[in-house]
Amino acid sequence: MSTLVSATVNDLIGRDVTITYSAQARASVDGKRFLVTGAGGSIGSEIVRQLVSLGAGAVYMLDHDEGALHALQLELRGHGLLQDDTVLLADIRDGRTLRRIFAEVAPTTVFHAAAHKHLPLLERFPAEAVRTNVLGTANTVRAAAAAGVRRFVNVSTDKAAAPVCVLGATKRVAEVVTAREAKPGTAVASVRFGNVLGSRGSLLPTLHWQLTHGVPVTVTDRAATRFFMTIPEASSLVIEASAMASTGETYVLDMGTPVSIQGLVNRYARHLGVPAPRIEYTGLRPGEKLHEELSDGAETRGSTEHERIWRMTSTAPCPTDFPARLQRLGHAAASGRDHAIRAHLWSLLPVGSAARAVTAAA
């Protein structure tokens, strides 16, 4: 947000925020052709900005939100005429259109940032989560493979670790889909990270509005914590991880220590000159955790050549009939049968992560 300076960000999340690029990351961008899905969103648009600044040969921006594409083109080009062939209006749910676009654009690397991400809404509308986060990801990976894309990076979330909500479960399944659907010759990876400060609809803009309008700040629980990153920080590390992608790994970004939500509220209130913010404790909503996790019992964590990126290795197999189960999930989503959607969704999770999720969802 524009009201935040670097020192304030550091204070809010309890650590220094620095952005640097390795020689490997720079080389992976310089002169290459990129396509970013969800390019109008907070993370997608920042990935676009950074790719442009790092000397990408071409950056194609795909989104189904024409207003977001207009705003991004205006920022990057100084006009919003929307006649540039790098601006692509499409929905990742439409696999046929994606295949045509990917064949025409022929990108070297794809950053897949398009997703539904608001936890409470997706608990209420699981079919929408499945259509975009799971089936849309499958469409995107398949289109990339058919077009001979060399590198595919799926932007994921820490909620995919030991998922207890529809958002987390769909993103975990999307990680599996990313790894399974890629063809030989395409390097693929998923990258998990936590909440980003200032993204559209996230905690900080909501908190800013509540504090500046004098209404009570809503906090789920006094003890609740979350991992936080800035949008530029997360995006730069996603680009770093993309340079390491190979055979379907899942990477997790180092987000420091979990941050107390109540503590963040008080620090931000002081920054805005609000001496004693009123806080209402609403309780955890369905699918919410008190504390987020980075991995679950089905994964082991290892280091990479980058000190702020970890590699997660799954120790549990996916169902042997995964394609058939994925198809059944699609049928359930098309019919809008919420109970069947949840059952099929959780049946697709790796064995070690599904038990906790089923228990939590019961």
UniProtKB/TrEMBL annotation:
Protein's UniProt name: Polysaccharide biosynthesis protein CapD-like domain-containing protein
Polysaccharide biosynthesis protein CapD-like domain span: 35-312
Recorded family membership: Belongs to the polysaccharide synthase family.
Organism encoding this protein: Asanoa siamensis
